[in-house]
Automatic annotation (TrEMBL):
Domain Imm-5-like span(s) in chain numbering: 9-90
Any matching Pfam family: Imm5_like
Protein name as annotated: Immunity protein
UniProt cross-references to InterPro entries, sorted A to Z: Imm5-like
Gene source species: Amycolatopsis silviterrae
Length: 165
């Protein structure tokens, strides 16, 4: 088990939001009337800024997950990855204290999916600097696992970079 304070969870979630947010315009361009990913990010942001971890975050994540599936199923890959970044940002608030590599996805998944969405859309990848608290939390977990396609590659690259910092 890994010790995680509420302040650390908030820092991880704030980082996840900062990573996912730049990809929102990619989703919104494809589906301008669909606010589900935006709402998921806003619910996560509220937690990062001091609100309680609530059902609203999970509900937002599930709604953004449906947006991801719908855009994926219609071949809107960049938009689907942007929605997935929002899902992952909301999921960051629920980082588990389990010493498993898969938990790294709660920390860096938003960055990986957002970077892939931006890459697919032909836009510059924007990676906010990680707060030292985020780097310390990340360092308590095993390295990011293999697999998960291009987003997984991007997560592993970022993971290696942050662990060197």
């Amino acid at each position: 088990m890994i010790e995680l304070s509420l302040d650390e969870l908030r820092a991880v979630t704030a980082y996840a939001v900062a990573c996912a947010e730049p990809a929102l315009p990619v989703f919104e361009q494809a589906r301008p009337d669909d606010r589900r990913p935006h709402d998921a990010i806003e619910a996560a942001r509220a937690f990062a800024e001091g609100a309680k971890r609530s059902k609203a975050i999970r509900d937002g994540a599930w709604a953004a997950q449906r947006a991801y599936q719908e855009t994926r199923d219609t071949g809107q890959t960049a938009a689907s990855e942007a929605a997935r970044a929002a899902v992952a940002a909301a999921g960051a608030a629920f980082l588990h204290p389990l010493a498993k590599a898969t938990q790294v996805w709660h920390i860096l998944g938003p960055a990986g999916h957002a970077a892939y969405a931006l890459e697919l859309a032909g836009k510059a990848v924007q990676r906010p600097a990680a707060d030292p608290v985020v780097v310390r939390v990340l360092s308590r977990y095993p390295a990011a696992p293999g697999g998960r396609g291009r987003a997984g590659e991007l997560v592993r690259e970022l993971d290696a970079l942050l662990r060197k910092a």
